[in-house]
Design a protein that fits this description.
The structure holds two protein chains of two kinds. Chain A is an all-alpha fold. Chain A has one domain (59-278). Chain A contains 13 helices and one strand; from the N terminus they run E-H-H-H-H-H-H-H-H-H-H-H-H-H. In chain A, helix 3 (83-105) runs antiparallel to helix 6, helix 3 packs antiparallel against helix 10 (226-239) and helix 7 crosses helix 12. The N and C termini of chain A lie far apart (60 Å). By secondary structure, chain B is α/β, with parallel strands linked by helices. Chain B folds into two domains: 16-259, 3-Layer(aba) Sandwich (Rossmann fold), CATH 3.40.50.300; 276-391, abc- transporter (atp binding component) like domain (Coagulation Factor XIII, Chain A, domain 1), CATH 2.70.50.60. In chain B, 22% of the residues lie in helices and 33% in strands. Chain B has helices at 39-44, 47-51, 83-90, 123-133, 138-143, 145-152, 167-178, 197-212, 224-230, 248-261; strands at residues 18-31, 55-68, 72-77, 98-104, 185-189, 216-221, 233-238, 241-246, 276-285, 293-295, 299-308, 315-323, 328-334, 347-355, 361-371, 377-391. In chain B, the strands form four sheets. In chain B, strands 5-6-3-7-8 form a five-stranded mixed beta sheet, with helices on both faces. A five-stranded mixed beta sheet of chain B has the order 10-16-15-12-13. The longest helix of chain B is centred in the middle third of the chain and has 16 residues, at 197-212. The radius of gyration of chain B is 27 Å and the shape is globular. Classes of the chains: A mainly alpha, B alpha/beta. The interface between A and B is large, with 44 and 49 residues.
Chain lengths: 286, 414
Amino acid sequence: MKAAERIPEHPPLEKIPGPSAFGGSARRFFSLLWLTSVTDFRLGFHGTVLGYIWSLARPLMLFGILLLVFTKVFRFGDQVPDYASLLLLNIMLYSLFGDATSAAVGSLVDNEGLVRRAQLPRIVIPASTVLTTFLTLTINLIAVFAFIIISGVEPMLTWLFLPVILLWLLALTFGTSFLLSAFFPRFRDIGLIWTVVGLALFYGTPILYPIEVAPEGLRALIELNPLSLIFIQAHHWIIDPNAPSVIEATSGHWWILPASLSIFVAICALGLAAFSREAPKVAEEL
Amino acid sequence: MTSEPADPTLTPQTAGPLSVRARGVTKSFRVLSNQSETLKEHLLNPGHLLGRDERRLVALNGIDFEIRAGEFFGIVGRNGSGKSTLLKLMASIYHLDSGEIEVAGRIAPFIELGVGFNPELTARENVALNGVMMGLSITEANDRYEEVLDFAELQDYTDLKLKNYSSGMQVRLAFALMLQARADVLLIDEVLAVGDAAFQRKCSDSLQFLRSQGKTIVLVTHDMAAVQRHCDRAMLIEGGVVDTIGDPTEVADRYVEISYEEHAHPERTGGTNLRARVSRIELRDADDNPVRAVHSGQPLQIVTEIEGNEPVGDLLLYVEIATSSVIRVAAMVSNAEEIRNLGPGERAEVRFEFDCPLGVGDYMLRYYLSSVDEGELIQPTSQAFPFSVIKGAAAGTLVAIPYGKSSRRMDGER
């Protein structure tokens, strides 16, 4: 005997999750993050090789100007071994932090249509702007390393630590971007404030100069900047093994290294926490 | 589940398992007196953070409803009634203040067609992006590309960037994508008028198919004809609370009624210093009840009241029915003996009777009074009494004509 007509199996009622920073399945989260990043990356170059070369032109021009200023005008670059290589690497690395954070600040507002009309793990929005910039950096690094080798820096085993540098920088960039983008919808002047702070960070990080030349009084302050540690270590691992490592550079004061690392961890944790806290309400603030 | 409180508006046909249950859904929004809030302000004046006079706008105030699996459920309401807020709460875009919404299975993650479309990308790239948004894996989204394009009838335009698509093509693509959503509850905001008649037919069929699969469809709209055509049940939200829930026709009637309430007394017309004037005009049904929502073919009467001021002689009353965009559809004229030489304060009534010949849509009555002898306009053209035809044979046509039909087979005849 056949069973009476049955309604197909029906899932049970469950409370809806509400909007959140992460919500939903992990697969959807990562698929969305990856696809949006790659799409934006391609769109950035208009899908052409020429487009890519054009996007490389901006940091290269900055590099050319700064190189001219610090070797011909101030002449201080002449005393730093492989100054050109160091400068190029530093500018490229900083461009990840600088470009990604300034794009991420307003990312929720820029994607208002999506935030207000679709449910998605909201952290994907700032995260994908960071990841897009990161993809650009990885491509640009190929050019950087070609330059470094041509200009006479010997390839070293410590180059294998490059991923550590990149992940370290990426983590700090993510944390900062989350922190900034979480509060931007409510406090729109964060964008303006951040351009000024970003400028201060650019000069307050050993990008144009190696840490050794920093004056004694400012050096502790510069080393407390968590970005500085990354650039100090990159100099040591990638360009010049004789340049001080993070541990050597901070040996003057024992507390600097733990303090700076704590600030790094705090920014990452605070960024995540702030975004998670603000994310559910963000659609109403736009 | 016998302990469930039964919703009295659920008909036996729709008494399947529950798909959505909302209890006491409440949502309010922050309204800042000073819109531009800055960090600087907060740092310079931290005191106002605490003492700020924060007003809250209550958008929804305790909404309860239930939707059964496989139902086509309409949510209607005027602008600002809170219906879109409710949809955003259901889709987890807004955060609930209190109450709860429960859903069986997955609810569609967006409330509008084509959300997240990037005009710079081709159809293929947009399908992938949107598919992932709806919960497909990247591979699955790519696999369904052909199917989506077939449905949208866009196979010839695959490499075109979306910005070069016509709006109709974009909506077709979006609708085709929506059908791929892995959702048990679909949320649709005002989109059923997609494409040409043939494509609309296809959309209706697809929605019917989804329902037969036990999927639930929630439609938010202003279009009462769509509500009656598609929905099993509907809910009217007004001022953040449920006004009416149940039969779509009742809900549509009620919607039309409250929509016109704000024209406080449109039938009380102005112009008290005229020599004579139409002091009242309204549409009534056969039982003499004023109506705002009518059906094609329904017997109706236009009831007017004319009030005199100075005697005019022969008066001509002209009443016409026009669409909301003032396309004049039909006119009726009267110069009855009863409205001759009305003295000050004297009143007369004129009625026109007819069977509603109109197609589904929004209309209004317009009228003027003139003097037959002097050929002079006494009361210039005024419009009053908006009304809607909410049910009829064909939507989108201006008139509905009564017609007979016959058919026979032609086999073997020659």
